[in-house]
């Protein structure tokens, strides 16, 4: 029974990533061909710039993602040198990758380059959070019970 629960939880974590990023990709794709989608994105970009993505909040997101990269790198190196489980190393590497992609979006990609920039950024932040939860769940599963 435990094996099935593990497979189901793995599947749910994988499936949870796709809708968030798929919505952002669909909005970006349709922003070129559908005027209503583009108007919606312009409106939402203004709303997000005034609420969720002010200069101060973007700085907070930068520090959180940078801390995630550092934490992921430390955990990954520690697990490699300690000879930990391969599954945990994979989760740590994916967590590190998600944080690095988030930092890339904040530092390199500008809001003018993508119409759905803030949707992509929110999607990446959700994926980072899910990756962190997955890392914690995987780590807790590997702790031996007394």
UniProtKB/TrEMBL annotation:
<feature type="transmembrane region" description="Helical">
    <location>
        <begin position="93"/>
        <end position="110"/>
    </location>
</feature>
<feature type="transmembrane region" description="Helical">
    <location>
        <begin position="12"/>
        <end position="31"/>
    </location>
</feature>
<protein>
    <submittedName>
        <fullName>Uncharacterized protein</fullName>
    </submittedName>
</protein>
<feature type="transmembrane region" description="Helical">
    <location>
        <begin position="116"/>
        <end position="137"/>
    </location>
</feature>
<keyword id="KW-1133">Transmembrane helix</keyword>
<feature type="transmembrane region" description="Helical">
    <location>
        <begin position="60"/>
        <end position="81"/>
    </location>
</feature>
<keyword id="KW-0812">Transmembrane</keyword>
<keyword id="KW-0472">Membrane</keyword>
């Amino acid at each position: 029974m435990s094996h099935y629960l593990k497979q189901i939880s793995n599947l749910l974590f994988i499936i949870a990533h796709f809708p968030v990023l798929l919505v952002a990709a669909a909005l970006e794709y349709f922003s070129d061909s559908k005027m209503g989608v583009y108007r919606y994105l312009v409106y939402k970009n203004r709303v997000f710039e005034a609420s969720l993505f002010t200069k101060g909040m973007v700085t907070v997101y930068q520090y959180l993602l940078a801390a995630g990269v550092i934490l992921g790198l430390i955990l990954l190196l520690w697990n490699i040198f300690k000879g930990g489980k391969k599954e945990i190393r994979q989760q740590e590497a994916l967590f590190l990758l998600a944080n690095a992609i988030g930092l890339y979006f904040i530092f390199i990609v500008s809001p003018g380059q993508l119409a759905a920039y803030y949707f992509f950024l929110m999607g990446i932040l959700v994926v980072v959070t899910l990756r962190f939860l997955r890392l914690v769940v995987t780590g807790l599963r590997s702790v031996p019970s007394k």
